[in-house]
Amino acid sequence: MVNDEFIGAGWAFPLRVDAAGGIALVTREREIEESIRLVLGTAYGERPMRPEFGCAIHDEVFSPIDASTFGRIAADVRRSLRRWEPRIDVREVEVTRDPDEPATLYIDIRYAVGSSNDPRNLVFPFYMIPAEE
Questions:
Q1: CATH tag, 4-127
Q2: Residue 92 forms beta bridges with which residues?
Q3: CB under 8 Å to 100, separation ≥6 — which residues?
Q4: How far is CA 33 from CA 7, 68, 109, in A?
Q5: Is the pLDDT of residue 65 over 80?
Q6: Domains of the chain by residue range
Q7: Rounded to an integer, what distance in angstroms lies between the CA atom of residue 40 and that of residue 43?
Q8: pLDDT tens string 68-91
Q9: What pTM value is reported for the model?
Q10: CA distance 103 to 29
């Protein structure tokens, strides 16, 4: 089992209040999931005081929806999570297209928390803007 101090606790994202009116906090694996979503959902330059925070997948919004783009997205996800979420070990990143909505990609991240062998995964939807035909 992973030490709770290693994982920590943080503000819930999106920011919200709890039942007592205080800032809602998340702990354990939920905190890591929210952190992953925050990293992937933030474009470089979006945070004025920390412009290098985030992930470059947003640069691919207008790219062709093909295997080359999928490879770049997977590499960007690995690179950003390695830098911004050191509590996890990314095992695999797979990018697939939604069969019913061609402009929707699913980024499936398989990871383990710390040095545990407890496998986890998170699917992050990413929306492309297809080229006009």
A1: 3.10.450.40
A2: 110
A3: none
A4: 11, 27, 11
A5: yes
A6: 4-127
A7: 8
A8: 999 999 999 999 999 999 989 999
A9: 0.79
A10: 30
